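Reading group handout, session on sequence-to-structure problems. Before we discuss, look at one worked example. The prompt was deliberately terse, the way you'd type it at a terminal:

> structure DNA repair exonuclease

The input record follows.
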Amino acid sequence: MADLRILLAADLHLGGPVAAPDPEMEASAGNAREQSLERMVELSRQHSVALVLLPGDVFHTPEPPLGAILALQKALAAWRDMGAQVFISPGNHDPWLPGGLWESWPETEGLTIFSSESQGVELAEMGLWVAGVAHSSEQETEDLSWLLPPPPPGRTGLAVLHANLSGTPKPGKHEPYAPAVLQNLLSATFDLWALGHIHIPQEMGQHPKVIYAGTPQGAHLGETGPRGAWLLTLSEGALSAELVNLAPLVFHDLVLDDLMPLGDPAALVARLKEKLASDASPWPQEHCLRLKLTGPSPLWRLLEREDPEVLAASLKRELGLAGLVLDLSCLCPPVNAQALATRPDVLGRALALLARVDDDDAILLDLEQEFIGLLHPDTRRLSDDERLDWMKGLLDETRSLTLRDLWQGGSEDGDAN
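And the output record:
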């Protein structure tokens, strides 16, 4: 049998927002999700894809806007015309609801939308068994992986599921809907677990293949790096997988804290270009960067004196970015804060106190408890470790402000005037 090509993509969130931190990005951000779907269709055409697996959160809400529905209908028609079979397992954002969108979706040749009743579909001509089940609510609490009917003997089994594997790396708040255990998946008789829900593309197992598709388009500056769809090849019973970078808009989050060797603007730009080098994509991409410059820098006077919007625009132009969010709150003069902390003046005493707090987490935690009522509700909801990291970030900002406001110049080793 000839090699079989499979496209895997999840968490398209059609109709959902994509952040535009820079006003000039609003048009491209607004079209990014639909454009990523168009690129998946083109990728399928280029590689003669026979099977498309979409494990959940195809839509951002159970009642998506017209444009999102039309975008999926257009893609499904294109896949049908090229002879591809499409399987959708609705997730927590777009669950299978009585009388809802999926139940009323028009029957289409080559399209299977799994319902809340688990189902297996045999594709005898391909030697495949595709099984899936939908979330029946926006807060599915059951482990759905146990419900999937196993493949019959002699069939390559593909499981399509929206689920949360315990211990999976996932930034942000992903609720543990449809919780599953990786070891249970690895011991099952399926050859592939095509998973959705976690937005980071990642392979969790090789035999069988366990793949989180990730989202093909990051939603905001917290969803960074290459995003796209997986191109799988089934050859003589063996599966291989490749992530194809196709997101129209790529977000980056960079903290640059080794600034002392960068003594002129050209060196700073060169370092940033080096850090931003990313995997190539066969499609044009725009890039948006959240950049934090922190610590001592020989360029601090130049960067501090310029209007922040003008400075950001200059860097954005030099780096070829669609958007730039610039944070200089922890940038400070090129001095040795530790040496300055030994001085008997106000600057020295302030730096010594900050150093003491920095070395003793208990002091930070006491401060946090003292001011807990003044914190923003989102900050209060952070875990203990997350709040401690947040407090340490405030400490860094305070140290930078102290140096900027109280240091009057002098040598970099702390012998200031």
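Points for discussion. First: The mean pLDDT is 90. Second: The chain has eleven helices and 19 strands.
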